[in-house]
Amino acid sequence: MNINEICDKLRAGSDTLALQTAAQKNIALSAVISSIERNRSAILAANGEDVAAARAKGMTESLVERLALDDKKINSIIDSIKIIISQTDPIGEEISGWKTPGGMTIRQVCVPLGVVAIIYESRPNVTADAFALAYKSGNAILLRGSSSALKSNKAIVSAIKEGLKSDAARGFGLPEAIELAPCESHDEVQEILTAVGKVDAALPRGGAKLINMVVETAKVPVIQTGAGVCHLYVDESADLKMAEEIAWNAKTQRPGACNAIECILVNEKVAKEFLPRLAKRFAGTVELRADKKAFDILNDKSVESVSSVVCKIVPAEESDFGFEFLDMICAVKVVSSVSEAISYINTHNTKHSECIVTENRASARLFQAKVDAACVYVNASTRFTDGGEFGFGAELGISTQKLHARGPMGIKALTTTKYLIDGDGQVR
User: Fold this and answer.
1) Rounded distance, CA 85 to CA 80, Å?
2) Which residue, 72, 79, 80, 92, shows the most beta carbons closer than 10 Å to its own?
3) Residue 384 region, left (φ>0) first, then alpha (ψ -120 to 50), else beta?
């Protein structure tokens, strides 16, 4: 991969794109939608080859689900781009403005970052989502997906470029604003992350290993997304039926997603009632790895509600806490109070998404105030941490850092600001 040649092309694309109006970018994005629709069969066929190869190599089904596309997911990609088209273009937006005592006018306005790289695993829908968000916000994008999704990514990028070059784009499409790394060697990632002056920002999206490697290796600025060690705390005042439903959704709907819960904390005052019903709900689906208190409750056959539990329950190892399973496995721990739950979460989480189920307003507000995470829920599943669910249409990832952007990243996460100063001859 010739990183200099690729980045020079992308820079030229970003320079031109930064001058386009929202209407011009929307016309190009609409042409991309039409091209994705035309190439639907080719995209699905390429993805089928990737999925077959992944299964042959022993990839877990929860991770295969992240890789796989179907008509519903293609429709979702198209719908996401439509939402992005409908959103207000942030470029040129005046954030603040004032006049100095000396008569100069100062305005702070939104501008694109420039050339952005995203390094991601599986999920070929990210290819289209990242492109559309970057394009609408005036940025060129370098995509480096995983080898497991290479054929899918190539088919999607081919469709995007076809759309940008089509008559429907009316001359406004800029195919030079997107490039896909060939994924021939891991050295490509190193080249991207050390392309100082060529790449303006890099975003990792994937598991903890990938994210840590990017953060530790990069010499270019990184917008850090985080692995998802997410927790659900069941408070002593919780509606236990609600807690059961939220736990089921947050763990099982998409266990391979970063916003799925990996640990359930239960207040000791409701543990004997809640844990057996949780185990019954998870029976045959989720393996529970329980700390000593939870394990003893779930194996106390003298308790009538426990006698019929057939869930797989094993003693937890210390390494099970603070671990992202990305599978039908969940750690369980009994705690004495909301304060202990908060302390435990802040020690073991990845600053992604956390939830409390409670009917106590004071406990809810304490939890939201003190838990250190991008998204903190009261009585709702962590599975809502998503750009689409937040109304962004799509997302670049979930930022777990505290600078520049935090939480689901939409269009504005790919902008920065500059100050525009107008004077009439002032000198200092």
Assistant:
1) 9
2) 80
3) alpha
List the one residue out of 228, 244, 229 whose CA is nearest residue 357: 244
Mean pLDDT score, 104-120: 97
Structure confidence at residue 302 (pLDDT): 64
Distance separating alpha carbons of residues 321 and 333, to the nearest angstrom = 9
Q: How far apart are CA 341 and CA 319, in angstroms?
A: 18
Residue with tokens 């000198």: 427
Residue 346 CA to residue 320 CA, distance in Å, equals: 16
Query: Tokens representing 16?
Result: 């031109």
Give, for 146, the enclosing helix (H) or strand (E): none
Half-sphere exposure of 333 (CA within 13 A, CB side): 23
Give the global pTM: 0.84
Whether 380 contacts 246, CB under 8 Å: yes
CA torsion, ordered 28, 197, 202, 26, to nearest 10 deg = -10
* pLDDT (0 to 100) of residue 267: 98
Question: Is pLDDT at 114 greater than 60 in this prediction?
Answer: yes
Which residue type sits at 184?
Answer: E
Nearby residues of 344 by Cβ (< 8 Å), 6 or more positions away: 231, 265, 333, 335
Strand partners, 109: 94, 418
Token output for 80:
């996401």
The C-alpha atoms of residue 416 and residue 324 are separated, in whole angstroms, by 32
What is the maximum alpha-carbon separation in the chain? 88
If residue 255 lies in a helix (H) or strand (E), which one and from where to where? none
